[in-house]
């Protein structure tokens, strides 16, 4: 037996319980000792059964990714498939083809904290928006963990001008953005985004519709392509997109996530991203919490700005 966080009812916090040891059933799999697994919004939605990939299977060990050590001693960052046996356990089964070896001196907690949220913008910019060096990027929802990292990622991938928009924009003073805008200031938002090439949208819902109404009439050139990448939906799963926005400018709305990007494509990006993260290129406030305190961590994750990382 081993210890793990276990969800037995959707919507309830996981509990620290004994579960059966995992076994590698197929070639290419390995049982890893989990060193760190981040408690991200994506994991919270998995445990609530509300994520669009949810299978409804219970009981469930949450956790979609993590850092672990394989029997050969290698340190690996891994992604898990849709499974009820996730990363928030002392050990889990990893498909080695969905993992990458990371530098041996990497900090597992920082790596686990940064990889998943940074991956959202890294994949969106590299594979969906196809950002070119010298282009400009607007991040909607930059005060969130993933949005804050998106500002850093956009700059690292060649963004020449990065605009950060969010509520309580004073929190973005150290974000590294060229321009900081309060989300509700339509005039300032439209002016700041008049020539951006890509929007990374972590909000959706009403804020996206309002942002389009602010941005579209103020575009410097109607024929300049504007790729709007829908990544997150913290403000709501549906958005009343104004039809005129699709006719008035060269607007392309695409999504970035599981399904719209192939799994092997995501995995192919992991090595480059892991090297960047391990080098300290991207920074977020991470805090390790013992796996035994998963119930308390679950409640705290809803209010803290720190990225909580569970460690066995």
> How would you classify the helix and strand content by structural class?
alpha/beta
Number of helices: 8
Total DSSP E strands: 15
Instruction: Indicate the proportion of strand residues.
Output: 15-25%
Radius of gyration: 20 Å
Order of helices and strands: EEEHEEEEHEHEEHEHEHEHEHE
Shape: globular
Q: Overall mean pLDDT score?
A: 93
Largest sheet, in brief, is:
7 strands, mixed
Helix content: 25-40%
CA-CA gap between termini: 14 Å
Contiguous uncertain segments of 5+ residues: none
Characterization of this structure:
The relative contact order is 0.16. With 312 residues, this protein is an alpha/beta fold. The chain has eight helices and 15 strands. The strands form three sheets. Strands 3, 4, 5, 6, 7, 14 and 15 form a seven-stranded mixed β-sheet that branches. Strands 10-9-8-11-12-13 form a six-stranded parallel β-sheet, sandwiched between helices. The two termini are 14 Å apart. Helix 2 crosses helix 7 (263-278). The chain has helices spanning 41-48, 108-128, 145-156, 186-192, 205-215, 243-248, 263-278, 294-301, and strands spanning 2-6, 15-19, 29-38, 65-69, 75-79, 91-95, 99-101, 136-140, 161-166, 179-182, 198-201, 226-230, 251-255, 286-290, 307-311. The mean pLDDT is 93.
